[in-house]
Structure formats: structure tokens, C-alpha cells
Specification:
Elements (H helix, E strand, L loop, with lengths): L6 H16 L3 H8 L3 E10 L5 E12 L5 E8 L4 H17 L6 E7 L7 H15 L8 E5 L5 H15 L19 H20 L7 E5 L3 H12 L3 E7 L2 E4 L6 H10 L11 E3 L11 E4 L18 E3 L8 H9 L3 E3 L1 H4 L2 H15 L5 H26 L3 H20 L2
Parallel strand pairs: 3-4, 3-5, 6-7, 6-10, 10-11, 11-12
Antiparallel strand pairs: 1-2, 2-4, 7-8, 8-9
Helix pairs in contact: 1-3, 1-13, 3-13, 4-5, 6-7, 6-11, 6-12, 11-12, 12-13
Length: 414
């Protein structure tokens, strides 16, 4: 049994819960909910076998009142306009929660990268950027990597945008170091998840040392979160991804698992340091901390009652539906929302953008120190709202974000 989730509706329901607390009227809600601009483009590509295939791409710019819009580009077979709208909206609230001078945007192309060659992906990326180049740029909208895109993709983005605009490294973040990328960017989201997990454990009275962690997804976010949590003394006991699941009650060898996944094209299946299990039961595994770090809409009213964790930290974007939130709250499970938990990535993207504008670069240690300071401050800012309004961390994060964006709107006269 599965549940169809409209992510945009889901995000707006979360928005409304916070707006109710703040007493926002209908007009203000409409202004803050409605995307500023939506671009939909057709992308005809000559495939390697000589056939012509038309892909569909999107860029949604949700809000730019606090700065240039900011958000990733994802390549996935299930990308649609509503998903991109939802993710763009979440970026507006995420950048506001960590208080960096960006708004929110998101991009996506409906495709299956696993069935495409490197040359086809490059042609697709260049055609997509050529079609949306008039609405992006260092002071307008700054893309970044997301699901199934990476530093190489961003290098193509920079190069294609530069054909018209000239050399503009600040037009995109998540680039290779050789092209102006920032130290620490690859690890940033996972490190942020680990920092927020540590801070949450501190206020909830969970001893992180020896705490059992279960993770769904072991790509960039999951693997780095696992690495940093392992260094903090937590114990990764189960991981599931698109290839299967592996668990070990005594704790998985995180370094070994990362090496195994890299050697097996990102998959954890077949790792010798644990027993295999059905990936579909990952949310049912015994643990203190559960980290969904894959795609959205995975914890729903269908499976939320089976969750056994004390704390959920959302490494992925929009992994928990509002119906599931209610069930988890009834079970006494604390959920740290995506717009706080995984904001380390956009925080270090901000650092990269700043470095590109100045053409002055920082060492990794400095990047991580600055990320830690921002993430810790953001957690405690949200925690203060939770205490003030006696609400969930998700609602507290939305309250904080809505206050900041609404105030900026008012001050600019919008």
C-alpha cells in the first residue's frame, strides 16, 4: 500500500500551521506562498544512438526578497512541476532559518541519469542552462547540485552560462575546486545533519555516544552524516538504499561501508560487515536516531506508526508528510525538519558564492568553523520558537522563517 503525496500541498500545510501561530492574514499568506516565477522548457537532445529525445526541464523561483534565489538542480524520472515548486518553497524557508542572504529556488529535469551517457548528460545540462540563462545569475538565481547532479554538472552549468555572460564563477555553487568551488562543500550537508543531531540530542537528553542510528539513503548526505556521527561516538546500526539494506546491531564499520558503496556505484547491498535486510523495513529498525537521507515523501501515514526512533533528523528534503508528522507526534517522536537539519549544504554554498564574488578562498577548517557557528545558532533560534509557542520543531522552524521573510517583505514595501 502506497500513499500519493503532493509535496507542494504538503509544504503549504506546514506553512499554514506556522502562519496560524503568527496570525497571518490571507493576503500575506498568498504573497508568501506563491512562486515569483516558474519556467518550463523543452529540451531536445540528440542521443548517442542517433535518436532525438525531448526532455522537460523546470526552474521555479519562489522568493527573492532576502537575496538572490538559491536552490539545486535535480535529475530524476519523477521530477514534475509541483515537486519543484515545493522544493523551491522549502529553499526560501531554509535560507531564512539559517539567516543567510538568499531566497529560494529549485530546478529539475525529468530524466533517468542512470540510463544516460556522460556525453548525453552534458548535452542535456547545456541545453537546459541555455534555455533558462536569462533568469539565473550571481545576483538573480544561483543553482547548485541536488539529486543525481554533482560538481561536474555544475562545471557545465558555469561554462554554459559563461558563454553569454563571461566568466561568472558565482553563477553556480557546488563546483569542482579547480573551478572555484569551496573547500568542504561536498561534506557540508552531511556535516550539518551531524551537528544538528548533536544539538538535538543535547536538549532532548539523548546520549549521542553509543546512540543507535538508522539511515535511509547513503549517497552524499547519508555517507558524510554517518562519517561525522561515527566520529562523535554514535553507532550506525542499519542503512538502506536503492540497492538493499545492511544492518549490524554491534555497529557497522562506517569507513568500510563508505568504501564499499563507492566501489559498488553508491550501493550498500552486499557489504560483508553486516547482514542484509529488506530495505522497505528500514523505518521499523530499533534505534534512537533515524535519518531519512534520500528522497521526499517516504515517511507517511502508512508507515509512521512503525517508527521506533526517539529522534528523526531529516537529511532529505520533505521526507515526512504532515499526516505522518501527526502520528509521530502522538508517539512522542521528535522530528528535526529538513529546513533546519540539511541546511549545511546551502550554508557552505553561500560561503562558495561569497568566495567567488571576492575571488578570495578559505581553508576547509575555516569553512567548517563558520558552518558550525551558523548551524548551532540556527538550531537554538528554532528551539527558542519551539519553547515560546509550545510547538513542534518543524512548526518552530517555519515560524522563524516566516517572520524573517515577512519582515523583509514589509521593509522593502512589497
Amino acid at each position: 500500500m502506497t500513499e500519493h503525496i503532493n509535496l507542494f500541498d504538503n509544504v503549504n500545510r506546514q506553512f499554514d500551521e506556522a502562519a496560524d501561530i503568527l496570525g497571518m492574514d490571507h493576503e500575506v499568506r498568498e504573497v508568501l506562498k506563491t512562486p515569483y516565477r516558474e519556467v518550463s522548457v523543452a529540451l531536445p537532445i540528440r542521443m548517442d544512438d542517433g535518436t532525438l529525445k525531448v526532455f522537460h526541464g523546470y526552474r521555479v523561483q519562489h522568493n527573492g526578497v532576502r537575496g538572490p534565489q538559491k536552490g539545486g538542480i535535480r535529475y530524476h524520472p519523477e521530477v514534475d512541476l509541483d515537486d519543484v515548486r515545493a522544493l523551491a518553497s522549502l529553499m526560501t524557508w531554509k535560507t531564512a532559518v539559517v539567516n543567510i542572504p538568499f531566497g529560494g529556488a529549485k530546478g529539475g529535469v525529468t530524466c533517468d541519469p542512470s540510463k544516460m551517457s556522460q556525453h548525453e548528460l552534458e548535452m542535456l545540462t547545456r541545453r537546459y542552462i541555455a534555455k533558462i540563462s536569462m533568469v539565473i545569475g550571481p545576483h538573480r538565481d544561483v543553482p547548485a547540485p541536488d539529486v543525481n547532479t554533482n560538481a561536474q554538472t555544475m562545471a557545465w552549468v558555469m561554462d554554459e552560462f559563461g558563454r553569454k555572460a563571461g566568466h561568472s564563477p558565482a553563477c553556480v555553487t557546488g563546483k569542482p575546486l579547480e573551478l572555484g568551488g569551496s573547500q568542504g562543500r561536498e561534506a557540508a550537508t552531511g556535516k550539518g545533519v551531524a551537528i544538528i543531531t548533536r544539538e538535538a540530542c543535547g536538549v532532548l537528553g539523548i546520549n549521542l555516544k553509543g546512540a543507535r542510528v538508522v539511515m535511509q539513503g547513503f549517497g552524499n548526505v547519508g555517507s558524510f552524516a554517518a562519517k561525522f556521527l561515527d566520529e562523535m561516538g554514535a553507532k550506525l546500526v542499519a542503512v538502506a538504499d536503492h540497492t538493499g539494506g545492511v544492518r549490524n546491531a554491534a555497529g557497522l564499520d562506517v569507513a568500510g561501508l563508505i568504501a564499499h558503496a563507492k566501489a559498488n556505484k553508491g550501493g550498500v547491498a552486499g557489504f560483508k560487515g553486516g547482514e542484509s535486510f529488506d530495505a522497505g523495513t528500514v523505518f521499523e529498525q530499533d534505534c534512537e536516531i533515524l535519518i531519512p537521507a534520500a528522497l521526499g515523501g517516504v515517511i507517511t501515514k502508512v508507515n509512521a506508526d512503525k517508527v521506533k526512533a526517539k529522534l528523526i533528523v531529516e537529511g532529505a528534503n520533505a521526507p515526512t508528510t504532515t499526516d505522518a508528522d501527526s502520528i509521530l507526534k502522538g508517539k512522542g517522536i521528535t522530528v528535526i525538519p529538513d529546513i533546519l537539519a540539511n541546511a549545511g549544504g546551502v550554508t557552505v554554498s553561500y560561503f562558495e558564492w561569497v568566495q567567488n564574488l571576492q575571488q578570495f578562498f578559505w581553508e576547509e577548517e575555516e569553512v567548517f568553523e563558520k558552518e558550525e557557528k551558523i548551524m548551532v545558532q540556527a538550531f537554538h533560534d528554532v528551539h527558542a520558537k519551539v519553547q515560546q509557542h509550545n510547538c513542534s520543531y518543524r512548526t518552530g522552524a517555519f515560524v522563524l522563517a516566516l517572520e524573517r521573510v515577512h519582515k523583509a517583505n514589509l521593509m522593502r514595501g512589497w
